[in-house]
Amino acid sequence: MADPSFDIVSKVDRQEVDNALNQTAKEAATRYDFKGTGAEINWSGDDVLLKAESEERVKALLDVFKEKLVKRQVSLKTLDAGDPQQSGKEYRITATVAEGISQDNAKKVAKIIRDEGPKGVQPQIQGDQLRVSAKKKDDLQAVIALLKGKDLDFAVQFTNYR
After folding, report:
1. Which residues pair with 94 in a beta bridge?
2. What is the CATH number of the domain that holds 91?
3. Digit-coded pLDDT (tens) for 65-94
4. What is the extent of the structural domain holding 38?
């Protein structure tokens, strides 16, 4: 039988992000402080595009969007929002919802596991995820606890635990 293992991934439930976006658009349409400011939020390919007539309103719209994401248990570490850019009479913010673990971040996590984790635990980088295997399930649980205790600058989930 193969050694016990689990995968470290960084995934986002796209439907939850879409629901948060729709709730934000609905709130922007009904809230008094957004009336007449041209506040809009919608998808632009894989990115989220926020627009308003003033820099303060577009930032406020971004705050509402972040609030909705938190309520839907989507980590804000997956959201990469730029600074407001002026485009004609309106201000725009382009926000990206990041998925997958980059090679650099995967190397950082593998180094943390090798340096601070229990002996005999092997991390392997597989594309945009990390597979961790060990002889004992207790060692894997120790690695999960170790990584949950770290303040990583990206969201991680633990899947495929066997």
Report:
1. 49
2. 3.30.70.990
3. 999 999 999 999 999 998 999 988 999 999
4. 14-97
